[in-house]
Amino acid sequence: MSADFSSPQLPPVGILEPLGDDDRDILSGYGVFRPVQPGQHLIEEGMAQTGLYYIISGKLHATAMRGGHKVLLGSVQSGETVGEINLLDPSAASATVTAVDFSQVWHIDSKSLEAYINEYPRPAAWLLIGVGKTIARRLRSVNEKIASFYGG
């Protein structure tokens, strides 16, 4: 990724690590690159959400309103994703994601992902395996938090 955002590229990090340079270049054309300024919301809790955001650079916080209080759910940074569940099952966002630092992200919606899967099934399989691993890792983390809350 160029510093001025004029030559966007998807790096071989996180869910994109198994993909070759050509596969990442092709995949990038199915989504949209966007800069996110500090304090800017990438996703807003409760709003319709239909895609995945891949963090190229920067740092963002995921927060949710619970009992009238803003709760920090976690941080996401380079090589990580947000919105992966809504990529597979579009719904309202369960959290607000806000840039802490200037961030560069890439977004793909479910319709574009479906087109990519149909045209490039092998690299798409690796991408979906990465998405599945991310969801599984986050689910395990939540399960551990719930178990520790109940003394388990």
From TrEMBL:
Gene3D superfamilies: Jelly Rolls (2.60.120.10)
Membrane spanning stretches: none
Residue ranges occupied by any Cyclic nucleotide-binding domain in the UniProt entry: 15-117
Domain of life: Bacteria
InterPro entries the UniProt entry points to: cNMP-bd_dom, cNMP-bd_dom_sf, RmlC-like_jellyroll
Protein's name according to its UniProt entry: Cyclic nucleotide-binding domain-containing protein
Organism of derivation: Prosthecobacter algae
